[in-house]
Write a structure and sequence with these properties.
The protein has 479 residues and is an alpha+beta fold. 41% of the residues lie in helices and 21% in strands. The protein has helices spanning 3-22, 27-43, 50-60, 62-71, 86-95, 131-145, 151-170, 174-194, 200-203, 228-236, 263-267, 326-340, 353-357, 362-372, 425-428, 450-457, 466-478; strands at residues 79-83, 100-106, 110-116, 124-125, 208-211, 247-250, 253-259, 270-275, 285-290, 302-308, 314-320, 343-350, 374-378, 385-387, 392-395, 410-415, 418-423, 436-443.
């Protein structure tokens, strides 16, 4: 293919993609354009076309193209996948707490790369952009943090580990291992089979009722399944009754109890409780408690914290059960947050724990935290958060806003039991998957109406920032 032919093809590619982008073609013309694009792809494998082909493939098959792009990179083995929601991506990264990277794709925004620079660290997140641009951003972060290993380095490490394993395997005393397994089978497994739930007589007047999930009787299993983790658990404890229930009832909630598997948490026997039977609360609320406090936690206050990540984005409300006082609550919260590279932005005391357990909706949880919990402590730059489900996202008044970042608050107006967005369209567009947003709440009872705000907006030069609009409204309220 000569230079002139390449120039004609490049021009045709630009014309085809422009037509697809404008969305003005008929279905037949769209199909015809895509078919022609595929023909050009097959005939253009030369390096001069690689960049153009990547951009066009991103329009036709965005997720498949992202997978192919990652698999052809030098960090393919550290790649965790392509996702369409923040929630799915975070769950995948939690399953692989070691260093790695992943791609988030949304049709109206493009691509983001999430880069984990160190084990158990919060991901660094790129802006929404193209694959190549964000990959270049990741390489810049890699130069700063050296968090990832190339596929060649990982292959070499695997070879070295294999050699080391073969040497160490010869040194293992098989009789010792069999003795541990035999001990585990005779003590722990029967103990699990006969373990009963706590009764009110033994616990006292408590609403926390652990239950054991049913499994097949051991007599009907051909072989007991024994994992290395269970063997380590046996070796690390002298009391088999320390086995935790899997499900606990907390008022009207059914929660899954999980022991936190890192050193600092294990020192305090910390567990987390995930609410499972109220799906609206799952993205918003996490509870932590010491296993030693499972029976007497009702005698202690409950502390509620707002948890944020390194970018200042909301993670969850963190309920701390069984803390002796606010300093103890902060200490327990920090153990969890430091491990995941999160931080607490505010801590509140909840006098009535029964109200927390009655929450079933995001609105109820927000009202409880906003109206009934007493502020104990907050960071200097504290900005409260409101769940996304509590607000009407359509902007009430049309005007031009300045650009926003993740710490930019949304200005809201509460009237007639509805909370409407006044300023925040740019902030909301940063991500459509956030569980909560930083906010400033105005109330009609303060004498603020949308008509008044519209009058104030007309006096300000556009684009208008959230801080300038809020200051102008406060001047009017104070006058």
């Amino acid at each position: 293919m000569n230079v002139l032919e390449k120039a004609h093809l490049a021009k045709e590619l630009q014309s085809l993609i422009y037509g697809l982008d404008q969305r003005a073609l008929s279905f037949f013309e769209i199909a015809k354009s895509k078919s022609r694009l595929k023909e050009i792809f097959l005939s253009c494998d030369e390096p001069i076309f690689k960049k153009q082909i990547l951009n066009f493939k991103c329009h036709l098959q965005p997720e498949l193209t992202a997978h192919e792009f990652a698999n052809q990179s030098m960090y393919a083995k550290s790649f965790r996948g392509v996702f369409q929601t923040d929630h799915d991506l975070e769950r995948a990264l939690e399953q692989h707490p070691e260093m790695g990277w992943a791609i988030l794709y949304q049709a109206d925004l493009g691509y983001q790369i999430w880069y984990i620079p160190a084990p158990h660290r919060t991901a660094l997140i790129s802006d929404w952009d193209g694959l190549e641009q964000n990959y270049e951003w990741m390489l810049e972060q890699q130069e700063l943090y050296s968090g990832l290993k190339t596929d060649a380095e990982l292959n070499l490490q695997t070879v070295e580990n294999t050699k080391s394993f073969k040497i160490s395997k010869k040194r293992i005393d098989n009789s010792t291992l069999q003795r541990y397994i035999s001990t585990f089978s005779k003590t722990v497994l029967p103990e699990q089979e006969h373990q009963t739930s706590f009764s009110q007589d033994s616990v006292g007047n408590t609403s926390l009722s652990p239950q054991i999930e049913h499994s097949l009787p051991l007599a009907h299993q051909s072989k007991p399944v024994i994992t290395s983790a269970e063997i380590r658990s046996l070796l690390n404890t002298t009391n088999s009754k320390q086995i935790l229930p899997q499900i606990v009832e907390l008022g009207e909630w059914k929660c899954r109890l999980t022991a936190l598997q890192f050193v600092k948490a294990q020192e305090h026997k910390l567990c987390n409780l995930t609410v499972e039977n109220v799906p609206e609360l799952m993205p918003l609320l996490e509870l932590i408690i010491s296993a030693s406090e499972l029976e007497q936690y009702v005698n202690q206050p409950i502390y509620l914290a707002e948890q944020i990540n390194a970018q200042g984005c909301f993670v969850k409300y963190l309920a701390i059960l069984g803390a002796e006082d606010q300093l103890h609550a902060i200490r327990l919260g920090n153990i969890v947050n430091q491990h995941y590279a999160y931080e607490i932005s505010a801590l509140k005391l909840l006098p009535n724990e029964q109200k927390l357990k009655q929450c079933k909706t995001a609105e109820q949880l927000f009202e409880l935290y906003h109206e009934h919990a007493q502020l104990v402590w907050n960071i200097e730059t504290y900005q409260p958060f409101i769940p996304a489900k509590c607000i009407q996202k359509h902007k009430l008044i049309a005007f031009e806003e300045t650009s926003a970042n993740y710490r930019t608050p949304i200005i809201l107006l509460k009237e007639r039991q509805k909370i409407r967005v006044i300023h925040g369209q740019a902030r909301l567009q940063l991500s459509h998957e956030e569980a909560a947003y930083p906010y400033i709440l105005l109330d009609r009872q303060q004498g603020v109406s949308w008509q008044l705000i519209q009058k104030i907006i007309q006096t300000l030069p556009q684009p208008i920032s959230a801080s300038k609009l809020h200051d102008a409204i406060q001047i009017y309220i104070g006058s």
